[in-house]
Design a protein that fits this description.
Layout lengths: L17 E5 L5 H5 L14 H10 L4 E8 L2 E10 L12 E9 L8 H16 L3 E7 L3 H9 L3 E7 L2 E7 L2
Parallel strand pairs: 4-5
Antiparallel strand pairs: 1-2, 2-3, 3-4, 5-7, 6-7
Protein name: GNAT family N-acetyltransferase
Keywords: Acyltransferase, Transferase
GO molecular function: acyltransferase activity
Length: about 170
């Protein structure tokens, strides 16, 4: 997966510049200690666990750090189903495994910019769709993803509602 470190959106008074970068041995400490707001802690795993999981599950999973104006602000895990032989039914899909924005950075449009980057990455990769799921009780996440064009599929996967955004 080729990654552009170019800003996702130009900095404005209300919207900071967001960049997305692969998480590596050299920069993981900048992202591993970020935390969501306490009320969201049951909806997303801690970053240390996310990094361990993505590294245990092979090359289909990739971890990315989200920065705003150079400051670590969040983390994103993507799953390229084309690289997973066990995912033949979802083989043309880029899956958003995790998205988290640090509590101190929330409410600034960073998640929206990060998801715009994901959609562009999916287009660059040529996948049919971007997919994700969220905890059923997290209605805020559902509203957020719907506002970006994602739609529910009707599928429930491990207690989470599945959503797709077609790219083709």
């Amino acid at each position: 997966m080729r990654i552009s470190s170019a800003p996702v959106a130009a900095a404005t008074q209300t919207q900071p510049t967001v960049t997305v970068e692969p998480i590596t041995c050299e920069n993981y400490e900048a992202f591993v200690h970020l935390r969501v707001a306490p009320a969201q802690s049951t909806y997303v795993a801690d970053n240390w666990k996310s990094l361990a999981q993505v590294n245990l599950h092979g090359p289909a999973g990739k971890a990315f750090g989200i920065r705003t104006d150079g400051t670590p602000a969040g983390m994103l895990l993507l799953w390229d189903a084309r690289m997973d032989p066990d995912e033949a039914d979802r083989a043309d899909e880029l899956y958003v495994w995790r998205l988290m924005i640090d509590a101190a950075q929330q409410g600034r449009g960073l998640g929206k910019q990060a998801m715009a980057w994901v959609v562009e990455e999916g287009r660059r990769l040529g996948v049919e769709r971007v997919a994700l799921s969220h905890v059923i009780a997290n209605e805020h996440a559902g509203r957020f993803y719907r506002s970006l064009g994602f739609a529910y599929t009707g599928e429930i996967d491990d207690g989470e509602r599945v959503m797709h955004l077609p790219l083709k």
